[in-house]
Amino acid sequence: SAAASDAAAPQEGEDDSGDPSAAEEGFIGIHFRAGNESARLWWDPGRHALASLPRFLECAQRAEAELGLPNTTKWFLSADTQAALTIDPVPQLRRSGKLVVLGEDTWHLA
Fold first, then answer.
1. In what order do the strands lie in the sheet with 74-79?
2. In the chain, which ranges are continuous DSSP H helix?
């Protein structure tokens, strides 16, 4: 029935996860490819040095400020290596909830 489908649909200001703040605030996506740091069985040319990841995060911070987004805006990190999760300040940003990833159970984090 229409009432049943309305109840299952996300409400205004709410995303599919049920978190109303995520839909209202949005997010900033960070795509980091190290290439040769990936835990894959084939060769991948180097792309970005792991040491450059903090500059990507600084860029996200500038974009957030320039777009006038609230400082509660989440940053989504997509990376091709779990090593990205150990680069400062990634662990601190994750603990604070500022930076999120899809998962850590595979070589690919997005």
1. 27-32, 74-79, 99-100
2. 2-8, 20-25, 53-66, 90-96
Tell me, what DSSP letter sits at residue 95?
H
- In angstroms, the CA 23 to CA 14 distance is 5
Q: For each of the chain's 110 residues, which pLDDT tens digit applies?
A: 444 444 444 444 444 444 545 556 689 999 998 876 655 555 665 577 889 999 999 999 999 999 999 999 999 998 888 889 999 999 999 999 999 998 765 555 55
Question: Which residues pair with residue 78 across a beta bridge?
Answer: 31
Q: Nearest to residue 109, comparing CAs of 36, 50, 31, 43?
A: 31
